[in-house]
Write a structure and sequence with these properties.
The chain is an alpha/beta fold and about 325 residues long. It folds into two domains: about 140 residues, Rossmann fold, CATH 3.40.50; about 170 residues, L-2-Hydroxyisocaproate Dehydrogenase, Chain A, domain 2 (Alpha-Beta Complex). The protein has nine helices and 16 strands. The strands form five sheets. It has a six-stranded parallel β-sheet. The radius of gyration is 19 Å and the shape is globular. The two termini are about 25 Å apart.
Length: about 325
């Protein structure tokens, strides 16, 4: 069993998301080695060459196209492979296609006895993270999904725009499914410790419910809006992937709303869903029970029910 190289990453899938994520990671300086793998070997080679040609402007990294044999000692194995979301197609519409893709990819990872973290980015991310846990045999804490990290960034960005403050001072989460049933945890949202409603009033905004509904709809529909205009989303998620990798490689123990297996929080069991979690070198260290009001708990339950229904479907139709 190969020792993990903390400075090595593997990117499986070199489409828009995979190549953009590899580019962001190259610029970050987190890794000194990155292997890119794709079912189309020439595509992986081309992306690796293109990114590598910018290395004189960045920090040294060995960047190359490879095979599954090259992932054995990777600290983080990032999976972006899968069918793309098309206009008018939901993330859940992708289930059948991408579960089948994962049935070819994850066993290749599992049989090499990798000790690194498995980071799932492909959509629908909650279902595919669940699938990866089942197919890989990895401990659940070492298999995490990008979850609602990007959705939460979109929420913080839009709140910051609404009240004209630095969005990094906004503390709020999108939780639940990364998809149409996700919810904003408004009751725990704050700006530098000041409750969101009170802060909004300080800035001259009083129509709280109307503003929250508008911002939530914008967050939920962001991917659809972008796909309608440019056929794919990739820059935002690439930055989210970079941020998750930072937390793992630096053992930051930062709190991010990644997808992870639930073990009883709010009654959630045997389902992968996005909740704020402490993320460090071992993956998910703990899930944080943020305060939710009664309505939010109900919506979270409804979101989990959607995912449970899909899990039953993949058990039944794909034998996962």
């Amino acid at each position: 069993m190969a020792k993990v190289n903390i400075r090595k990453a593997a990117m499986i899938g070199c489409g828009f998301v995979g190549s953009s994520s590899a580019f962001a990671l190259m610029q970050s300086g987190l890794f000194s080695e990155m292997v890119m793998i794709d079912v189309n070997r020439e595509k992986a080679e081309g992306e690796a060459m293109d990114i590598a040609h910018g290395l004189p402007f960045a920090r040294p990294i060995e960047l190359y196209a490879g095979t599954y044999d090259d992932i054995v000692d990777a600290a983080i194995i990032i999976v972006t492979a899968g069918a793309n979301q098309k206009p008018d197609e939901t993330r859940l519409d992708l289930i059948h296609k991408n579960v089948e893709v994962f049935k070819t990819i994850i066993p290749e990872i599992a049989k090499r006895h990798c000790e690194g973290i498995l980071l799932i980015v492909s959509n629908p991310v909650d279902i595919l993270t669940y699938t990866a846990i089942r197919l890989s045999g990895f401990p659940a804490h070492r298999v995490i999904g990008s979850g609602t990290v990007l959705d939460t960034a979109r929420l913080k960005y839009l709140i910051g725009e609404h009240i004209n403050v630095d969005n990094r001072s906004v503390h709020a989460f999108i939780i639940g499914e990364h998809g149409d049933s996700e919810l904003a945890a408004w009751s725990s949202a704050n700006v530098s410790g000041v409750g969101l409603d009170r802060f909004c009033e300080m800035r001259g905004h009083f129509a709280h419910e109307e503003s929250e509904h508008k911002i939530y709809q914008e967050v939920k529909n962001s991917a659809y809006e972008i796909i309608e205009r440019k056929q794919a989303t990739y820059y935002g998620i690439a930055m989210a992937v970079k941020r998750i990798c930072e937390c793992i490689i630096r053992n930051e123990q930062s709190i991010l709303p990644v997808s992870s297996m639930m073990h009883g929080l709010y009654g959630m069991e045997d389902v992968v869903v996005s909740m704020p979690a402490i993320v460090g070198k071992d993956g998910v260290e703990d899930v944080i029970p943020i305060a939710l009001d009664e309505e939010e708990q109900k919506k979270l339950g409804e979101s989990v029910a959607v995912l449970k229904d899909r899990i039953e479907m993949i058990h039944r139709e794909h034998g996962i």
